[in-house]
Amino acid sequence: MISGTIPTFQTAAVLKGPYGEYHTIVENWPVPRPGPDEALVRIEASAICSGDINPRDGYPPAPKIPNRPLVSGHEGVGYVVALGDNTGSSAGFAVGDRVGLGWRRSTCHKCSLCEGGRENICQNVTVNGYDGHGTNQEYVALPVSDLISIPKTTASATELAPLHCAGGTALGAVRSANLNPGEWLCYSKHFGYRVVAIDSSHKESYCKNLGSDAFVGYEESTTVVQRVTEATGGGVHGTVVCNASPASYSQAIEYSNAGATIVSVGPAMIQLHTGHLMQKGLKLVAQTNGSKQDLKDALAFSNIGLVSSIERIPLASIDVALDALKLGKVVGRQVISFS
User: Fold this and answer.
1) pLDDT score of 334 more than 80
2) Are 161 and 64 within one domain?
3) Which SUPFAM superfamilies match (predicted)?
């Protein structure tokens, strides 16, 4: 089933060379045709995520041998414009539906994790922009099984796109901290927690405008633990570590209250002595992306005005955007708009 006229060629950001080489903007990239159980999605917006740095530059979980050519991107919003010949109504989507797609391209849907709503850690996952072409193109074909239905909302596509990885992951991470209202968390505000934000000093006003109760700049690294402990009256009850700095993990152990949970979102090679965890009874847990339910719940935030600070960029600026993100110079979210 096809809606309207679908072009033969499109514009896409394609990785062609070795790790470390920038994207090539290809204006005659073929528009794919959806296979069985697949949909062709016309992309409205594709958000830039730190996970897009890895397939370009070769950091894990990118494979040792580059997957090339490869269209990057995994935070997209768009409309279904065609379905594969054998994709029936049981798939739950029809031509014209607005959908979102994130990190997961597909999962097995058969293991106990998938069946238990924890498909984000399915061990048979394939990833958009890693194992298959991603969202930094005008049209993408992918399995319908892991598409997310977009509810009616006044939010724009550029506001919705980041929720399909960053938003869902953040929500899943906050839930993994398993705190009680009123307790201190180094991250989220909208669950009744008190929040201390730790970030670059130039983001202080941004974080406070979002509602953080306290802010600590990380540049003066030797006093981070002391300042967090003082700001929270003895330490936090949970921390979501979103960056890849080993120091962030060691500091979190020090400024955590007894019984706290540290949630790892930013992958890092760290060295720690488990005795430091044991002394306070700390828990170190990992969060990879968000479950399908996390993504759906994150989308609900778009209806109450919690998505902000979007910088729209052209597709041709993708590597400039990734380099700025890599250097920690980005405030908010950078999003490519195709519509």
Assistant:
1) yes
2) yes
3) GroES-like (SSF50129), NAD(P)-binding Rossmann-fold domains (SSF51735)
Residue 2 in domain: no
pLDDT-above-90 percentage for the chain = 83
Q: pTM above the 0.70 mark? A: yes
Q: Are residues 14 and 128 in the same domain?
A: yes
3-state helix, strand, coil in the chain (%, to 5): 30, 30, 40
Check which CATH number belongs to the domain holding 237 and give it: 3.40.50.720
The domain tally of the chain equals 2
* Contact in structure between 214 and 231 (CB atoms under 8 Å): yes
- Taking CA atoms, 196 is separated from 14, 183, 285, in Å, by 39, 11, 20
Residue in the structure block whose two tokens are 């040792």:
64
Comparing C-alpha atoms, which of 208, 268, 298, 195 is closest to residue 237? 195
150 and 293 together in one domain:
yes
Determine the Cα–Cα distance for residues 179 and 175; give it in Å rounded to an integer. Answer: 8
Q: Is the separation of the CB atoms in 107 and 115 below 8 Å? A: no
Q: How many C-alpha atoms does 50 have within 13 Å on its Cβ side?
A: 20
Q: Sign of the CA dihedral 126, 129, 131, 132?
A: positive
Enumerate helices (H) and strands (E) in the chain, giving the number of each. 10, 18
Spatial separation of the C-alpha atoms in residues 92 and 146, rounded to whole Å:
11
Residue in this structure with the two tokens 């006003």, named with its chain if needed: 205
The reply to whether 125 falls in a domain is: yes
Q: Hey, what amino acid is at 335? A: V
Q: Which pLDDT band, with edges at 50, 70 and 90, does 88 fall under?
A: low
pLDDT in tens, 170-188: 999 999 999 999 999 997 6
How sure is the predictor about 277, in pLDDT bands with cuts at 50, 70 and 90?
Answer: very high
Q: Which domain holds residue 79?
A: 9-165+289-337
Pairing mode, strands 333-337 and 38-47:
antiparallel
Prior bond of 69 cis (ω within 30°): yes
Identify the residue with better confidence: 2 or 223: 223
Average of per-residue pLDDT across 314-318: 98
